[in-house]
Design brief:
Elements: H1 20-23, H2 34-54, H3 62-73, H4 97-114, H5 119-133, H6 140-154, H7 177-190, H8 195-201
Helix pairs in contact: 2-3, 4-5, 5-6, 7-8
């Protein structure tokens, strides 16, 4: 329902604020707090994760990328799986999202084919660039972490722990010390130091 903006959002540091139109696309009408929204999204993300684990198709393409986001957030947001149509506090110019994603997929395929980096580093670098592109209105960090997990598995590695988020109910969505460490590691990677993010991913 248009104009449905009753939920009171409290964005943690580094999160992407939604504009009024994006917020009006919230599907469940009963949510009123950030905590309720996080819990609802986490259930939706769990279903997306189950779907992703069953897939055998190539994950390094726009179709899979968008489909995964839709599976993760499609019960929450009407725009799930659609690229953003405005610029945000982070990310490339929205007109270039498709171009930048194609470059990323091509680069990762090259890295895999030529073993440019160890498997973990390929997946973590992939995650970092996905976050930097910021293809969707929201959910980019969670989506990029799951994409990196899937890539790590395809490369014969276990999923990442991302600061043990599976033990603390995805505290990366809250203003927590774990999230602060994650944001700091992303910022180090922005400055071309991938080591903190590599360490965080397996911490």
């Amino acid at each position: 329902m248009a104009g449905q903006t009753r939920v009171n959002l409290d964005y943690p540091a580094g999160a992407t604020p939604l504009d009024a139109d994006e917020l009006a696309s919230l599907i469940p009408a009963h949510l009123t707090t950030q905590g309720e929204l996080n819990e609802w999204e986490q259930l939706n993300i769990g279903e997306g994760d189950k779907w992703a684990r069953k897939q055998r198709k190539d994950i390094l393409g726009e179709d899979f990328l968008r489909q995964l986001h839709r599976r993760m957030f499609g019960e929450t947001w009407k725009w799930a799986g659609e690229f953003r149509k405005s610029d945000k506090n982070i990310g490339v110019d929205w007109h270039y999202i498709g171009v930048e994603l194609k470059k990323l997929f091509d680069d990762v395929r090259y890295q895999i084919e030529h073993a440019t980096f160890p498997a973990d580093e390929i997946a973590v670098r992939f995650h970092h660039r996905l976050v930097a592109i910021h293809a969707f209105p929201n959910g980019n960090g969670r989506h990029a972490r799951l994409m990196a997990d899937l890539l790590a598995e395809r490369l014969g590695q276990p999923r990442f722990t991302w600061g043990s988020r599976r033990l603390v109910k995805d505290s990366l969505t809250d203003a927590s010390p774990i999230r602060r460490d994650y944001i700091a590691a992303l910022q180090a990677a922005d400055a071309r130091d991938i080591a903190p993010l590599l360490a965080f991913a397996r911490s």
